[in-house]
From TrEMBL:
GO terms for cellular component: mitochondrial inner membrane. Signal peptide: none annotated. It comes from the Eukaryota. Appears to be essential for maintaining mitochondrial cristae formation and mitochondrial function by acting via YME1L1 in a kinase-independent manner to regulate essential mitochondrial structural proteins OPA1 and IMMT. The action of this enzyme is not yet clear. It is not known if it has protein kinase activity and what type of substrate it would phosphorylate (Ser, Thr or Tyr). InterPro entries: ABC1_dom, ADCK1_dom, Kinase-like_dom_sf, Mito_struct-func_regulator, Prot_kinase_dom. This is AarF domain-containing protein kinase 1. Residues 145-481 form the Protein kinase domain. Gene3D superfamilies: Transferase(Phosphotransferase) domain 1. One of its GO terms (biological process) is lipid homeostasis. One of its GO terms (molecular function) is ATP binding. SUPFAM superfamilies: Protein kinase-like (PK-like). Coiled coil: none annotated. Belongs to the protein kinase superfamily. ADCK protein kinase family.
Amino acid sequence: MARRALKLASLAAAASGIYLYGNKFMDPNDFGVVRVGRAIATTAVITYDYLTSLRNVPYGSEEYDFLKSQVHLRSAERLRELCCANRGTFIKVGQHLGALDYLLPEEYTRTLKVLHSQAPQSTRQEIEQVIREDLGKEIKELFVSFEDTPLGAASLAQVHKAVLQDGRTVAVKIQHPKVQAQSSKDIFLMEVLLLIVKQIFPDFEFMWLVEEAKKNLPLELDFLNEGRNAEKVAQMLKNFDFLKVPRIYWELSTRRVLLMEFMEGGQVNDKAYMEKNGIDVNEISRNLGKLYSEMIFVNGFVHCDPHPGNVLVKKCPDSGKAYIILLDHGLYQVLSESFRMDYCRLWQALIKADMKRVQKYSRRLGAGDLYPLFACMLTARSWESVNRGIDQSPVSASEDVEIRSNAAAYLPQITQLLNNVPRQMLLLLKTNDLLRGIESALHTRASASSFLNMSRCCIRAVSTYQRSKSHSLYRRVHISLTEALSLWQINLYELFLWLKGSCLGNWVIAFLNRMHHST
């Protein structure tokens, strides 16, 4: 009798499951056992592939390098499929990995970059449910129009264009309804799997990735925090007239719904869009560098997700001025004063090719004996270029290949370094790589002006810090005069570079040469 009752209960449960799935009330991805099983299976297959494919091949041989590249590619594709299937937190972490150029093998970064365009979309019913639960009204009560197709979908949320009852056009950011419930379980699962992999491969040290996700994901899932960040950065950078940050409409915003001013434009890495709309690519790259130098070195409050979908450009038809529009303010890194000063001085040393100070400040930031690798990771340049001076010559194609091959060769040392540096550094490295990706797409990478802007910000930041610690009027005046002189020297050098590259400069040089030959 008990066995028969158990059979009936099992049949009823199965029938209910099929009915719910068929009616789209429940997605199999919502079942923890499905998500966990998929993650375990993928991790097991990737681990087995690495253990067996390279076992009997001589290390360092051409065959070894070829097979290793193939294993990297297969593993990256399996990881991408896992992220797309489990969605949410998995896609977020996968996107983070895809942004770590020069830190991970190219096979991984190239394969995982597509996750920015493969994020899941919530259905209209799910969107209505979130708005109803958080704002207490139906969509038709709040908006005159609401576009069903999202402007963009990300790992944690999607954005829709809408028009309020008073006629204002807004962007409505709505969190995927299942992300909150799944995120903590997903992170715990990743942590367990990474610990198991580390037992098999002792050199594999990616626990820093889970620690960062633990800390940052709750902040990114709180849209009120995102709104506060947007207002803070808009106020902080108000002197930059080329920057636009959407205004937040607080009366219709909650932890899962964010209403903001609607702004549109082309993605910052879309060179064709800029050329078509008469936007100066070099000016945009220069201004983007100014923004981030100011955030990192001067303010210590850094927007850490500048992938192209979050940074738009638009030319005002009336004034002809090109603007940078900064979106998605969920993830910011707050830098401590001591960290920020060490980071400023390290970059000053890198720009001046002062190797003693590069070593000193790299060690202070946790790099230890791996300071040459740390300098290469920060600058995305070879050690030879770092010694010569990173502002002396642009990145060549051969140097780019060398950097990427070194990323694969030194993966154990890179993971060790990432475990040793302060947690603040991890998001800065990600930000650096995203910015370099934009510069590469625009062909403006490693321009002299970007280093000059960084130098200005470092000088201002260090001088401000020194004045705050000085109790002597004479000392403060001396610091201010030294700061003014250093900034004046940079301006003079920038003028020299402009003259050197301009028609007027060429004419002056030709005239001086003639004068020299005539004498």
